[in-house]
Amino acid sequence: MFDRCHWTNEPARWSLAPERLDVVTDEGTDFWQRTHYGFSRDSGHFFGARTAGDFTAELRIRANYEALYDQAGMMVRVDAETWVKAGIEHSDGRPMLGSVLTTGQSDWATGPYEGDARDFRLRITVQAGVLRLQASADGKVWPLVRLAPFPVAETYLVGPMCCTPERAGLAVTFTDFSIGPPSQRALHDLS
């Protein structure tokens, strides 16, 4: 699946194997639009594949988060002001599971992650104007993290995302990336 991806803000250091993407973040990278801080940033690293219409995407993410706002996960993007990023972000002295939904302005939903933040998985489904975000510690059980309205678009970019607003040097490994038809599982089906 990585062979379908293209960079938005290509990092200086990265490598690609058939089923693995390794990235080391550049300094001062982030995605954010205005809310609370008053600034806009569209400098984070995003390796997106274009998908036509609704989809379900899954990704495994491995990293050691150390500095404030170190983050890695997955992004779904329509344009610079319409996107969602989700994953682990270092905040309040620990790795937190969070998501930022942006439609002109960014929100931020975050909470403690009870699994091993150094190795986790994300699943994002976009269907009929709704985004469903799930996270998994083992790839078997997928609790719901967020359910939100999301703009309907003819195409989306979806793929790995990582940023370090306060430093450079977060090493991230992405594997098990897939994009397919939208999941038909019931909302509380954790499989």
TrEMBL record:
Checking SUPFAM superfamilies in the record gives:
Concanavalin A-like lectins/glucanases (SSF49899)
**Record's InterPro entries?**
ConA-like_dom_sf, DUF1349, UCP022704
Membrane-spanning residues: none
Q: What is this protein called?
A: Regulation of enolase 1
